[in-house]
Amino acid sequence: MELPDDVVDDLRKRLRRAGGQVVAVEKMLAEGRECRDIVTQLSAAINALEQAGFRLVASGLTYCIEHPEEAAASGYPLDEVQRMFTKLA
């Protein structure tokens, strides 16, 4: 399944944001920052990763609905993409 360029760009942006947040958590730990601040930053990283996952699966679902035969032939029948979605939920 091919992802549209705008989806890839959005996913890369979200992953860079999550990566920056993880680096910030590591820095906060090294600095001995407050637990609540670290948890807030961890939560932001988790949310960024979840949103990237949902965006990816939403694009897959759209593709499967618009091109069911091609999706199934490339190993992404609708039921498989639905299972991927439930892994994230």
Structural account:
The chain is mainly alpha-helical and 89 residues long. It has a single domain, classed as Metal-sensitive repressor, helix protomer (Methane Monooxygenase Hydroxylase, Chain G, domain 1, Up-down Bundle). The protein contains 4 helices and no strands. Helix 2 packs antiparallel against helix 4 (78-88).
Describe the structure in brief.
The chain is mostly helical. It has helices spanning 5-31, 35-66, 68-73, 78-88. The chain has one domain (5-88): Methane Monooxygenase Hydroxylase, Chain G, domain 1 (Up-down Bundle).
The low-confidence parts are none
What oligomeric state do these chains adopt?
A: single chain
What is the name of the CATH superfamily? Metal-sensitive repressor, helix protomer
User: How many domain modules?
Assistant: 1
Terminal-residue CA separation: 22 Å
CATH topology: Methane Monooxygenase Hydroxylase, Chain G, domain 1
Count of runs of 4 or more consecutive helical residues = 4
Strand content: under 5%
Overall 3D shape: elongated
What order do the SSEs take from the amino end to the carboxyl end, as H and E? HHHH
Structural class: mainly alpha
What's the architecture in CATH terms?
Up-down Bundle
Average residue-wise pLDDT: 92
Largest sheet: none
User: Residue share in helices?
Assistant: over 70%
Q: What is the strand tally?
A: 0
